[in-house]
Each structure stands twice: as C-alpha cells, then as structure tokens.
Amino acid sequence: MAESEGKSYGVIVNSFRELEPNYADFYRDELGRRNWAIGPVSLSNRRSEEKAGRGDSQLKEIAAALESWGGSFIWVVRKDPRTESESESEEEWLPVGFEDRTAEKGLIIRGWAPQILILEHEAVGGFVTHCGWNSTLEGITVGKAMVTWPVAAEQFYNEKLVTAVLGIGLPVEAEKWVRGTGDDEVIMAEGIEIAVRRLMEMARMAIEEGGSSHSSLSDLIDELKQRSHV
C-alpha cells in the first residue's frame, strides 16, 4: 500500500479538511503526497432510502445491560452468515423473552440497518460505535455524541480522534458522563454537545457548493482534465 501511494498521483480521502487539517497538511508538506478530502461521502445521498462480530457471551451482556437500563434503544446485530438460517427461538445470544420484555422501549435489527437514517432521527440521543471510519464520520455529520467501543485494527486510532482530539465522545469504560450534581460533569456534557454541533455544521458545509470538500473535488477534476490534455 505504501509503495502504491508513493507511485500514485495522490490520495482521495473520505474526510473533510475542517475535521483533521493538521493531518492533511502533514501528508502534503511532510510526506510530499497530494491529497483531496472530499467527504463525508455519505452525505451525498440525499434521499432517505439511500441512507438507509461479537461472541454470544458478549451479546448477552449487552442485552442484560439494555434491559437493566430501561431506556429506549435500537440495537443492530449483524448476524453471522453461517447462522443466517437459524430461527429467532434458536438464537443463543438472546436471553429468553428479551424482545417481549423490551418491546415498548427497544428494537433489534438483525443484519443491515439504515444507519444514517436512524442516526438523523431527533429521538436518537447518542451512538455506541466500534469506531469504524464510516460510522465515525456518520456520527459526526448527524451531530450525535458517541460512546466508543473499538475492537480491532484502526478503530482504536479513530477512537482517540473522537475522544482525545475532537472531544465529542467517551470510551465505553468511562465512569461518568452525565449532567449530575457536580459542576465538572455539567461542563463536560455541555462541552461535548457544543463540539458535536460545531463539527456537524462543518461537515454539512464542507460538501455544499463552495465548501472545502466540494472545492477539493472540483480541483481534482480540473487537474485530471488538464493532465488528460498534456
């Protein structure tokens, strides 16, 4: 991959400059590699219909936590293709009667889910995410604070961007994130809310005409046109 980047004309990135300007500058100035941030590409889908691997023991713990919590939730579970044919009554990861007991407050979606459409809904207040890059960008662009739960690969780096650099989420092991009695807790919650709203607006403006991502894509197209005539 590194060898291919060195030989390429440049790199197109699913991000927007306002989100990580220092990285874009480092890539260009220090590494000498051209890059165009043209995202978030998920926002290019304007129509609603276009927006649409943990083990059993871990899933059981999540189910127990959701039921104990008592709040409203949407739980998306991607089924293993090897068990696609099993009936709901045979799903060992799901506590017996869980869906009946939580029917008024919760919804389980098995398989693919229209994540952008769900996150955009005003009733959704937060997003528990493994910090895959697409999900991270989607959480930012719809203005939802994130509870981060990385499991592999670059997800841990994305978590650090969300929690330590951008300040718009907390890791799953965090002990508190509430508007409680302490002043520090209130300031923390309000600070996250402000940061989330600011980045959401930046993301939406980036893809509009005249925005950074829109301009970056236009510049790339113009350069490629010029090269085709050389």
TrEMBL record:
<comment type="similarity">
    <text>Belongs to the UDP-glycosyltransferase family.</text>
</comment>
<comment type="pathway">
    <text>Pigment biosynthesis; anthocyanin biosynthesis.</text>
</comment>
<dbReference type="Pfam" id="PF00201">
    <property type="entry name" value="UDPGT"/>
</dbReference>
<protein>
    <recommendedName>
        <fullName>anthocyanidin 3-O-glucosyltransferase</fullName>
        <ecNumber>2.4.1.115</ecNumber>
    </recommendedName>
</protein>
<dbReference type="InterPro" id="IPR002213">
    <property type="entry name" value="UDP_glucos_trans"/>
</dbReference>
<keyword id="KW-0328">Glycosyltransferase</keyword>
<dbReference type="GO" id="GO:0047213">
    <property type="term" value="F:anthocyanidin 3-O-glucosyltransferase activity"/>
</dbReference>
<keyword id="KW-0808">Transferase</keyword>
